[in-house]
Specification:
mainly alpha, Rossmann fold, Serine Threonine Protein Phosphatase 5, Tetratricopeptide repeat, 3 domains, five-stranded parallel β-sheet, 49% helix, binds flavin-adenine dinucleotide
């Protein structure tokens, strides 16, 4: 008797190596096919980003080649997974569909729907965690509640990760090999197979945008009529798509010195001091275990306390990622608005001219504008600058943080609901973070972290001639501006104004 066919549904795990759900499926049967379902409803999300469509399309191309090299194939379908996966299982006679779990509310709702449809047809469903080092249900406070505060979460998380590593639970799983492909000529239900909306050849980024629009090339893709332009920042984007590039980036970061000096280097936006692996972790072209293993190797080879401290700080960033994911899983209401109830009453001013200036990188505050140009131009922004521009939008321009959260999602290649929402609520002071009010002075931040204004000059080349202190303070003489605006607000005044509005909020 031939081996029973299984299907593995890739979602945010676009890799073959160290993929827990895939490894479990491959251990059960060699007759394994991969499937990706491109749902126009998801692609057409109003906050879709051309950069993410690019990263997705390019990563799919490599994933399909890897499936082929492993002896089988990746099927890419277009439509609703709740409808298509049962049809595909019936067409191929698949007994089981396996996938890795996610934390986003809409994702979980969709998965429940897909699982019910498959089970209704008698197809088994196998699901487990893959995208986190510690499964979120197993990391709880002493009282059995989910964590709301990062510090104690980190302590528990680190202990659990280290225990799991010693127990071999984080050992990397090899990519499956010697798989058995399906034979389209010998399928149990050829008429169902023929009717499947398969995307062959694989879609390019422009086609993904077209699918999202439900029409021809690059029409309005999102629900609100926003035009999805093709991504033009691929060359500037530091995040590279595909499994091979993610591993190469990880190696370069861990072996090339940036990890060893991460504690300091991570704060300097003019330098490549961070891993730029956020999109790889977001799309799962890299697993968190691979990231952790690279840090463990570096730790073993470390020769100084500074290097060891840097490795620990980088691991703490991986913990932030998991903290926000478990928070979203346990508190899905985070996605809807401020976690702290009093922030629902904040009298945001939301001045459209100021908001537009922020989006366009024309606020007259060079560090803010450089960062916003990096976001729009490359699909990515340095973490230090994400914090600066977020604080500026909320506390200097007095705009609702959700407007910034949305704009980030429309542009970020690594745009991720849990991390983005977590970062914005942290910056707005509306989240779980116990510090009540955090206000960044953009000039002080620039002076500290871009002291030579190298980052500012990179992204604002029209100001290359301006003296460094003026670029940092934003106090540029009118003649030197050459069309660049004067600051649209005064930080001191706005800070006082924001504090006064905050003081009137109901406590609680
Ligand atoms: C307002 C705001 C919005 C953000 N939006 C996103 C987002 O949509 N997607 C996203 O992945 N990150 C987001 N971040 C977190 C952080 O800025 C990025 O993860 C980081 O800049 C990515 O660069 P890197 O890969 O070089 O990170 P590294 O410094 O090399 O860190 C390694 C990895 O840890 C994770 N990580 C690092 N910092 C954080 C953090 N503060 N929160 C959660 N995970 C973290 C990322 O997966 C990152 O790739 C946001 C931060 C802020 C302040």
């Amino acid at each position: 008797m031939s081996a029973p066919r299984w299907l593995f549904w890739h979602r945010r795990d676009l890799r073959l190596a160290d993929n827990l759900g895939l490894a479990a499926a491959a251990a059960a049967t060699a007759a394994l096919s991969g499937v990706v379902v491109l749902d126009p409803a998801e692609l057409a999300a109003p906050d879709q980003a051309p950069a993410r469509l690019w990263f997705l399309a390019e990563s799919l191309r490599e994933l399909a080649a890897r499936w082929q090299a492993a002896g089988s194939r990746l099927l890419v379908l277009q439509g609703d997974p709740g409808e298509l996966l049962p049809r595909l299982a019936a067409a191929t006679g698949a007994a089981v569909v396996a996938w890795n779990r996610g934390v986003e509310p809409a994702e979980r709702e969709r998965d429940r729907r897909v699982a019910a449809a498959l089970q209704g047809d008698g197809v088994k469903v196998l699901v487990d965690w893959d995208q986190l080092l510690v499964p979120p249900e197993t990391i709880l406070t002493g009282g059995g509640a989910p964590y709301r505060v990062y510090g104690p979460y980190l302590r528990n998380w680190r202990g659990q990760v280290e225990r799991r590593a010693i127990a071999g639970e984080l050992d990397l799983r090899p990519a499956p090999r010697d798989l058995l492909d399906l034979d389209p000529a010998a399928l149990p239900r050829p008429e169902l197979w023929a009717a499947l909306p398969r995307l062959e050849p694989l879609p390019a980024a422009a086609q993904l945008a077209a699918i999202a629009s439900g029409s021809g090339p690059l029409q309005p893709a999102s629900g609100d009529g926003r035009l999805l332009q093709p991504f033009s920042g691929a060359e500037l984007c530091p995040c590279r798509p595909g499994e091979a590039a993610a591993l190469a980036q990880l190696d370069a970061f861990a072996d090339g010195g940036a990890l060893a000096s991460y504690e300091e280097g991570r704060n300097l936006p003019a330098e490549a001091g961070t891993s730029a692996l956020s999109a790889a972790l977001r799309f799962g072209t890299l697993s968190p275990r691979q990231a952790w293993a690279a840090a463990a190797v570096a730790r073993y080879a470390a020769r100084s306390d500074e290097t060891l401290a840097s490795i620990s700080v980088w691991e703490q960033e991986l913990a932030w990622r998991e903290f926000y994911q478990q928070a979203l899983l346990h508190f899905p209401e985070l996605a809807a608005g401020p976690y702290r109830p009093q922030w629902r009453h904040f009298p945001w001013e939301n001045d459209p001219t100021r908001l537009d200036a922020w989006k366009a990188g024309l606020t007259g505050m060079p560090i803010v504008d450089a960062a916003m140009r990096q976001l729009v131009g490359s699909g990515w922004m340095h973490n230090r600058c994400r914090m600066i521009v977020a604080s500026y939008l909320v506390k200097d321009l007095i705009c609702d943080w959700r407007l910034g959260e949305r704009f980030f999602m429309e542009h970020l290649v690594d745009g991720d609901l849990a991390a983005n929402n977590g970062g914005w609520q942290w910056s707005a002071s509306s989240g779980m973070d116990p510090k009540p009010l955090r206000i960044f002075n953009p000039a002080t931040q620039a002076g500290k972290f871009d002291a030579e204004a190298a980052y500012i000059r990179t992204w604002l080349p029209e100001l290359a001639h301006v003296a460094t202190p003026d670029l940092i303070s934003g106090q540029i003489a009118p003649l030197e501006r050459r069309g660049y605006p004067a600051p649209i607000v005064d930080h001191k005044q706005q800070q006082a104004r924001f504090k006064a509005l905050y003081a009137n909020l109901p406590r609680g």
